[in-house]
Predict the structure.
Amino acid sequence: MGEIIFHILFMIFTGILYFEASGINVTRASDPIGAAGFPKGILVLMFLLLIVSLIRVIQKYKKNKIETTFKELNIVWIGILVSVSMYTLVLDKLGFILSSLFLLIVLFYILGLKKISYNLVLSFLTTFGFTMLFGRILSLPLPRGIELLRDLSYYIY
Amino acid sequence: MDINLLIEAFTTVILSRYILAIIAGMFLGVIFGSLPGISASMGIVLMLPFTYYMGILPSIILLVALYAGAVYGGSITAILFNTPGTPAAVATTFDGYPMSKNGEAGKALGLAVSSSAIGGVIASIVLLLLAPPLSKIALQIQSAEYFALTFLGIMCIASIGSGDIIKALITGLFGIVLAMVGMDPMTGVLRLTFDNAYLIGGLEFIPVMIGSFALAEVLKQVVERLQDSTGFDTGEEVSVESFEMKELLKYKWLLFKSSIIGTLTGILPGAGGSIASIISYGEAVRSSTNSKKFGEGIPEGVIAPEAANNGAAGGAMIPTLVLGIPGSPTTAIILAALVLQGLQPGPRLMHEQPLMLYAIFLSLLLSSIIVFLGGRIGVKFFTSVLKLPYKVLAPYIIMFSIIGSYAVTNDVFQLWIMIAFGFVGYFMKKYKFSPAALILGLVLGNMMESSFRRQLLLTDGDFLSFFKRPISLAIIIIALLTAFYPIFADKFLNNENK
């Protein structure tokens, strides 16, 4: 059932992309098919193939009657996605060091590193190592955070 | 080829300080290439300021060695974590990662390093012997052939990507559509941006690649480890043992063929290692007596793409140096480095600085030999990483994914792209849609569209013009055969069995 839902969502997204492609300004076209021609053609082809694939999946589903289970509904799977999303939300505000430290503590914890002292030491050392490698040695402009955090970050990278 | 010049170039390159430059460049290249998002081009850019003080020859040798090392480096994470360091290493995941899962990570890495080195050596020899005539061939290739070549790339991956040709085609086409996001290169109008300013410059393939391979793989591992009760306390059961050289000799013909495919594809500006490795993998599947076992983790599946993408890296130096046309961001930066040093790459370089040109090709050759010698030592170190408990390894993979995505444009928008494709990529893997086809579509999409439209523009909208040029027609026929041969072969065999 999950595969059927995935196909339907994929088809809806293809439709949305086609709708967006229909709005492309083609008045400046210098070639026979214009800026919208290629993406629209590809999207139509994609939609047709999705229909074929969906029919095959439905036939397989009717034949085998596979029971639907959502193995993804567990704390680790959801925890990883949520924690990385939260990290992305706060990265510009807290800066690389603090955000990464929090993220690593959470990731190590949900993956089973429950011993707090070991978790904290490993998270701290990892954050420090990444900051030195990418911020100092490779001079990547890692996010610095805002206000005081920003000023402090200049002492480190 | 002038033998005296070649000997002079050789005696120059084997000076100890140049050998040191090659070793340093190769070492840095392997590191940069193995980190997804921290690409060879970034490594070269970071090294540029240091090369100002080094003189022309050592600086170019360093950068070329870095480039060669990075191509091999891309295969390390592809084999160990199913995360290609570069798009050219996507095909290496097909069999490299299954080999790793089967406990043969050491062997897979050993094969990758040896094939990479041999691919590089063969490409260097071809460059030394045939650079001028090959550059003329590159100039013959026009829009129709470029379109045909990208079409071949997509068809190859559709036929081998995930075992389901329709699903692989869907994801390949989806990748092409994603490549259209942003400003149309021919008219300048915005397309598929949903009024998002971050998308005006287009969708970067690195965060998409990292998301759909690395993050999706972590999510997949989580589900699998919870399901089969392996948990996160254990690492992989891996053998750090490499392989006997005589084993590689069994595949000498495949090595040679893949290296030549790579070199010839590499000389076409813009085509590069991504197409080369896929075409070479496709050819290996087609010509193998073991074709059903591809994708389950067999040595041929690692040898073919690795020899080809290193061959392509060598081949790409021909248009860059002899024609002055860089085919990739990395070669564009090497070109810029040459210009900064006061050289003018182009047709006149062959006449004005032949010693320089031969020295560059020889340094590529020596880099490959050093990759061969040094890479085998590195295999044990890289393989031992897999022994880390997954509860430690997974957060590291996620952190590298985050930094690799962020580094592309230095903003958090790329992280959202990575997360979105990590989520979608997980379900793509689960339902056998090929993330590899998605990446190849994304990498080739722009080239495919622009060559298609340019050809129509040149021929007043003649759609048949793609079939009127012999090279283009031949490539299209090969592409169609590649895609549909397995289906017809299966039907034919079924009928025979009845």
Notes: Chain A has a mean pLDDT of 88. Residues 93 and 145 of chain A are 4 Å apart (CA to CA).
